[in-house]
Amino acid sequence: MTAPAPAPADIFAKRESEVRSYCRNWPAAFDTAQGARIHDRDGRSWLDFFAGAGSLNYGHNNPALKQALIDYISRDGVTLGLDMHTEAKRMFLESFERRILQPRNMDHKMMFTGPTGTNAVEAALKLARKAKGRQSVVSFTNAFHGMSLGSLAVTGNAFKRAGAGIPLVHGTPMPYDDYLDGKTPDFLWFERLLEGSGSGLNRPAAVIVETVQGEGGVNVARAEWLRALAELCKRHDILLIVDDIQMGCGRTGAFFSFEEAGIEPDIITLSKSIGGYGLPMALTLFRPELDIWEPAEHNGTFRGNNPAFVTATAALDTYWSDDRLTKQTLTHAERVEAALAAICAEHQDAGARYRGRGLVWGLTFADKERAAAVCARAYDLGLLLETSGAESEVVKLLPPLTITPDELDEGLAILTRAVAESAS
Amino acid sequence: MTAPAPAPADIFAKRESEVRSYCRNWPAAFDTAQGARIHDRDGRSWLDFFAGAGSLNYGHNNPALKQALIDYISRDGVTLGLDMHTEAKRMFLESFERRILQPRNMDHKMMFTGPTGTNAVEAALKLARKAKGRQSVVSFTNAFHGMSLGSLAVTGNAFKRAGAGIPLVHGTPMPYDDYLDGKTPDFLWFERLLEGSGSGLNRPAAVIVETVQGEGGVNVARAEWLRALAELCKRHDILLIVDDIQMGCGRTGAFFSFEEAGIEPDIITLSKSIGGYGLPMALTLFRPELDIWEPAEHNGTFRGNNPAFVTATAALDTYWSDDRLTKQTLTHAERVEAALAAICAEHQDAGARYRGRGLVWGLTFADKERAAAVCARAYDLGLLLETSGAESEVVKLLPPLTITPDELDEGLAILTRAVAESAS
Amino acid sequence: MTAPAPAPADIFAKRESEVRSYCRNWPAAFDTAQGARIHDRDGRSWLDFFAGAGSLNYGHNNPALKQALIDYISRDGVTLGLDMHTEAKRMFLESFERRILQPRNMDHKMMFTGPTGTNAVEAALKLARKAKGRQSVVSFTNAFHGMSLGSLAVTGNAFKRAGAGIPLVHGTPMPYDDYLDGKTPDFLWFERLLEGSGSGLNRPAAVIVETVQGEGGVNVARAEWLRALAELCKRHDILLIVDDIQMGCGRTGAFFSFEEAGIEPDIITLSKSIGGYGLPMALTLFRPELDIWEPAEHNGTFRGNNPAFVTATAALDTYWSDDRLTKQTLTHAERVEAALAAICAEHQDAGARYRGRGLVWGLTFADKERAAAVCARAYDLGLLLETSGAESEVVKLLPPLTITPDELDEGLAILTRAVAESAS
Amino acid sequence: MTAPAPAPADIFAKRESEVRSYCRNWPAAFDTAQGARIHDRDGRSWLDFFAGAGSLNYGHNNPALKQALIDYISRDGVTLGLDMHTEAKRMFLESFERRILQPRNMDHKMMFTGPTGTNAVEAALKLARKAKGRQSVVSFTNAFHGMSLGSLAVTGNAFKRAGAGIPLVHGTPMPYDDYLDGKTPDFLWFERLLEGSGSGLNRPAAVIVETVQGEGGVNVARAEWLRALAELCKRHDILLIVDDIQMGCGRTGAFFSFEEAGIEPDIITLSKSIGGYGLPMALTLFRPELDIWEPAEHNGTFRGNNPAFVTATAALDTYWSDDRLTKQTLTHAERVEAALAAICAEHQDAGARYRGRGLVWGLTFADKERAAAVCARAYDLGLLLETSGAESEVVKLLPPLTITPDELDEGLAILTRAVAESAS
C-alpha cells in the first residue's frame, strides 16, 4: 500500500462514531512507527509512552518479529485457523511451554479465545462459574476487565457500567489494596462476609484481580496483599483469576506480574502484548483440573489468528529465553522512578505523587485536572502519554519495555517539562 | 519463519484445552493455504468449503490483499492504533464509503469494536438499549450471535447458553421464518405480544436477526419475511439489528445480505470477511441519529487492527468497485444448487433436502447423524466441510466466493461421493 | 366498636396513598355487610357481584362461619400461631383432608404461607425451582399471579410489571388458550421451543396457569387445552402449577377449578376464599415427593392466622361435605348465562359478547370503554361490579356462590339496565 | 367452636409440609392464650417470651382489643374491604394520625399492602426504585426483610437466600453496626464506594435497615450509627427505608424504634404488632412527595383486612394516647437487663454476653450450640424462648410489652434456671 492521496480531513468525523476517544487528544493521523516512535504523514513524530495501552511491550514493528511475520505471510502460512491445529500454533504452544510454563513449574492448560482481552475474561468467568457451580464473582474497586457484558459486570468504572443498558449483576466489588484508609486490615470486610452465613454475600465462584490496575489509575497491589488474597481464596474454595492482560508479558519485570508475589493463580488471562507485534491475540490459562470444557462450549472465529502466533512465538524466543529483558525492565524502572521522584520533589506544592512498578507508573496531582493538562502539553512536545483512573486524574507511563535508555531519558525529560509547563 | 522441526505430536493434547473442536474432526496440522486450498506439512491438501466459518470469502491468502499487507508491514505502517486516526483507517473509511455506503444511499456511521463478531454484537446491543431505554431484545430460534454474555443471551443453542454459568436473561426468542408449521401466519405471536398490554412481554429495545442462520443450520429467511419484520419493528418503535457477520461481505451475492429484501436495518454488525484476509476486524454500523455514544463509552484494545484495515481496503477496492463478484457468486450458486438437487434426487430415500442462497447452502438427511458422516468422509476425500445446526444435522457449504468453477465442481463432486459413501 | 363521630371527609385523601383504586369508582365508605349485600353508614346498600375479588365465595359475614369465629375468639383461642401446632390448625388439616383431598384421591401436602395469594405463589415458584434445579418459569398472556417480585415476573400486565422498578426476568410468556387466531394449533410454539435444542428458551422448571384468568379478563381455558398442557408438562418433565387462588374454592363449581378437566397439578395455590370469611389465609399444595423443603426454608409471620383456620374449617364443613354447593353454582351459572345471552342479543350492535364458567363471567363490548361505563352505572343503581382485563375492557361478574336466586336475578336485572343505560 | 375430638396425632406430619419449624422445638398443640401465657389442650401452659415473633406486643387476646373485635364481628362490620373506604379503615387512619403521626410532626402517607411484612417491604422497594429510577438497594449483614423475592434479595441469611432458586441480585450488603472489628470507622467502605466513580457499586435507590436486627441475632445499632446513616443517605440522594416491622409498635420503648436516634426515614414499613391482636396487617409509610404511585400500581386482596383495622385502632387508642406504655417498657427493660447481667456474671466462663434495647434482648455463649439448649430447657420449664442469628446462636427475649412485672420475673427466673441447666 502506498500512502493515499490527501483525504477530506473529516472522513473520521463524517463516518466514524462519536465513541472514538484517543483521537480527540491526539488529533494527528498516524502512519508509521518503529520501536518507541510513531510518525504522522507530515513527518512529525512522537515518543510513545503509551505503547498501545500496553500491547506493544516490544515496541512498534519490532524487527525480529516483523521478519518472522513477513516470512510467514510470504510463504502463505495459514492466516485464520479457528481452532484447527496449525504449525504456527504448535510452535507457539511449544515455545510458551518451554520459555514460560516449564521454567515456572506451571502445568496450566491454554485456551485460545477470541483475540481480545474481554473475550479471554469472558471465558475465564464462564469456566470459574462452571467449575464451582456458583454465579457470583468478586472484583475490586477501580478494576477494568473489559466491555462485553460479562467483563463489564466486574469492571468498576460507573460511566462504562452505565453503558451496558441493563443492570449489571452477579458481581460484588471489594476494596482493592490501599483503597480504604490505610488502617483497616486487609480483607477484613471480605473475610467477614465469607465467614458469616448471614452476610448477604452471594458466595463467589471466583475473585478476579489485576496486580496493578492500569486503567483504574496505576494502583499497585503489594505482594503481601496478593498473597493474602490468594490464601483467602484457597481457604474459602474460591478460584483466583489474575487478569494479566495489561500487566503480563513483562510489563512489571517478570513475565507474569504475579511472580513477584509468589502466588500461582488458578486462572490467568493474557492478551495485549502476548501477540508481540500488536496483532490481536488472547489466551486464558487454567490449572489442568479446571479443564472441564466440553468441545466448542466456548468459541470464536478469530481465536486462531495465526500471524499473531508467529509474532508471539518470535517474541517469546527473542525475549524470554533468558532474563535479560526482565533485568533491563527493572533497570529502566529505576530511571523512571528517579525522574518521577524529582518531579514530585519539585512540584510538592502541587501535591505531586507517584507510584508504580516495572514499567508502569502513575503521577498524580492535588488538582485532578492537571493530569490531562500534562498529557496535552506532552503531546505538543512530542510525547504520547495517557491519563488513567476513574476521573482521568493519573498520568500513566507505559513505555515499550524495549525502549533505549536514551529514549527513556528523552521521554522523561519531556514529561518533566510538560509538568512544569502545565501549571495553571 | 521456516517450518519447525517435527514437534511432539501431542503438544496440542498436552497443553491446549479440551474446548477445542474443529481439530477433532480435522486432525491434520495445517500449514499453508492459497485460495480455496489448504495444506498440511506433509503435502496433503484439501479443498476448503468452510472458508474460516465464512471469514475467507476472498480465499486464503488472496494475492492482491497479501501484497498490500506485506507492503504495509514492510514500510512499518502502524500496526495497533486503538482508536487513533491512522492513514490505514482513513483509507478504509473512504473506501467503505465510496464502495459500499454511497452506492446504497446509506448514511450509517461506523464504529470499530474489538475485532471479533461478538464484540460488534455487544456494541450493537448496548447502543440499542441506550437509544430506547429498554432492556429486552428479541432474537430468533436457532440464532447465533456470539459467546460473550451479551451476545450469548440472544443466541439460541441450549448447550452454548448453558456454558454461561448464569441465567441468561433480557432476551426473548421468537420463531424464525419457517420454524413453526408453515401455516401459522408470520409474526402472529410476536405482534400479538407487542399489541397486548397484558402479554407479559418486556417491551424490546431491538430485534436482532440473521438473514440466513449459518450456525443455526442454514435457515434462510424469505425476503418478504424480512420485510414484514422490518415493517413490524418500525410500527412498534423497535430497532432492527441485522447481524451480517457471516452472511455479509458478499456471501449471499450482494455486499449486505439484506439488500435482496430491500430493507435498511438501523444497526448492522460486520466481522469475519470484512478484514478480507482473515485478520480480526469487526464493525458496527448504525443510523447517524443513533450515534449517541459518549467518547470511550465502549472500547477495546485491538479495535484499531490496522493490518486488517489495509487488507479490508484492498478487498473493497478489488472486489466491490463493480458487480462482478456478486454476479459470479450468483452464477456459482446455480452450480451448487444443481449439484445439491442432483444429490437430493439420488438420495430421496434418505430424505435428503437442501436449502441456501448465494454461496451458503445446507444439506440434510432424515437421519440427523448422516451430516457428520458426510463431513468425515469428505475430509478423507480431500474436502473440508462442516456441519451446523443445533444437532449438527446440516452439512454446510461455505466455499470462498473467489473459488474457480473447476474447484467448485471438484468440491461438489467430492461432496457427491461423500454422500454416497457415507450411507450406513 | 360503635360507629365513630363523623370524620373529616378527606382523611383518606389526606393520609392514604394515591395507590388506592377501588375506592375511586366506589366512593362510599362501607360499614357493614351480610351475604350478598354491603352497606354504607347512611343506609345505602349494594348487591355485591364482586365478592372481595373472589374472596367471599360464601358471602359477607356468613352466619355459620361468624358463629365459629366469635366462639373461637371468645374462648381465647390462639390467634397468631406462626407454624406451631394448634388445635385450630389441626381441625383445618383434618377437615381439608376429609372434605377435599381424600374424596379426590389427592396425596398433596400442605404448606401455610404468609396469608396472601402472592406469598403462596412465591412459595410455589421457589419449590418448583428447587425441585427442578432450573430458574425459568413459563406463564401465560394476561396471567395475574401477584405483586411481589417473584409473582410479578410471571404476571402479564405491562403496567403492573413496570412497577417493579427492575427488569423482570426468569419468566417466559406463552399464548393462553384462544389468545392467537383460533387457527394455530395449541402449544405449537411452546412445544417447538421445548423440542428444539437451538430454540433459545431457557428450559423451564414449571408452568404456572390459571384455569380461568380472572384479572386478565375472564379468559376461560377449555378443558382439552388444560389437559394438553398437563400432558405437555409431563412429557417434558416440567412441573404444572395451577394458581387456583381466585378460581378455586368452588368458584367454577367443583372445589378445584381444574377438576372439570380431569388433571392433577403438581402444585396448587389457594388463597382468597379458602379462609371462608374474608380473613387472610393462603396455602400451597404439592405432591408429597416435592416436599423437599428444609425446615424454615420459607416462612412468614402470619402463616398461622388461626381465626382464618377456624372459619376455613367451618366453611369446609358447611359447604363441602356434599355436592350441594357445586350443584347450586352450576344452576346459578345457567341463570347468569341466560341473562348474559339476553343482553348480548339485545346489544348485538354494540358487539356485546360474554364468556364464563361457574360463577365467573365476563361481558365485553366493541367499545372497550363501555365496560367501565356499565360498572359505573351499576354502582349508581346499587350493584358492585368491577372491570377486568389489561385494558379494563371486561365487565366481570363474581357474585358470592351463596347468593339466593332472587338476589342473583336482582343483580342481573340491574346489570341489564346498566348496560342499556350506559350506551353513549 | 368447641375443641375437637382427639385427632390422630400425626395429621401434622402426614399433611403439613416439612417446611414447618417452630413446632419442631415446641411439639405441643397450643389451643388458647391470654396475655403472656399460652396453653395446650391438656392444661399445660407456658409463659411466652416470643410473642408471635414480635407480633403480640400487647399480649395474646388482649381484652380491650378482643371486645372491639367481637363487637365489630357481631355487628357484621365489613370483613374484607380491599382498598375500598370503610368506616373501620377511616377510624384507623384517624387514630394513627392523631396518636402517632401528628405528635411526631410526620406528614407521611400510608399505604395498606397485602397484610404481611414482606408485602410491605416489596412495596417499599418498588416505590424507592420508581422514585429514584435506580435498581440497586443497599442492605446490611444479617438483615431480615422477608421471603418473597424482592425482600429476600435484601436479606442476609445464606440458607434462606438459597431457597430462592434463582440468583438474588440488585442488592448489596454493607456491614451493620459493629459487624467488623470495632475499629474501622463506620461507613468508611460504604462512603468510599459512593464517592468513587470507579468503585463498581451500582448506585443504590435506597438503603433498607432495621434499628435492631431481631432475626439476625438481636444486633443493636447505636443511635449515632443510625444518624450517620441517615446523614449519608441524605448527602448521596439515597432513600432511607427503616423496616420497623419487628421493632416498631413500641418494642424498643417509643412507638417507632428510630425515634431514639432522632431520625426520620423516607419510608417505613410496619406489620406484626400494628394489628394489635395478631391479625395480619401491614403498612408502608412514606414522605408525601414519594407518593408517586399510580392507582393500583401495587395491590393485594387482603390489604383491607378490616378486623385488623379495628384491633389496630383499639391498640392505638388504648396504649398510645399517652406515654405510659413507653415508660413501662423502659422500666421492664431495666429488669431484663439486670437479670441478663446476673446470668452473664454467673456464666462468665461460658462466655455469656447480652445485648438489647427496650424489650428485645439477646443472650449468647462462647459455645454457639448453647442457645438452642437453653431454649429447649426453657420450654420444658414452661417458657417459650426462641433462638435467632444466622447460626441460631442467640437466645432472643421478646416478651409482650404488656407483661406484668411478676410474669417478667417469673420468665427471667426460668431463663436463669434454663441457662444453668443447659450447661453440657
UniProtKB/TrEMBL annotation, chains A, B, C, D:
Coiled coil: none annotated. The keyword Transferase applies. Its cofactor is pyridoxal 5'-phosphate. Its EC number is 2.6.1.76. InterPro entries: Aminotrans_3, Aminotrans_3_PPA_site, Dat, Ectoine_EctB, PyrdxlP-dep_Trfase, PyrdxlP-dep_Trfase_major, PyrdxlP-dep_Trfase_small. It comes from the Bacteria. The keyword Transferase applies. Gene3D superfamilies: Aspartate Aminotransferase, domain 1, Type I PLP-dependent aspartate aminotransferase-like (Major domain). This is Diaminobutyrate--2-oxoglutarate transaminase. It comes from Streptomyces halobius. The gene is ectB.
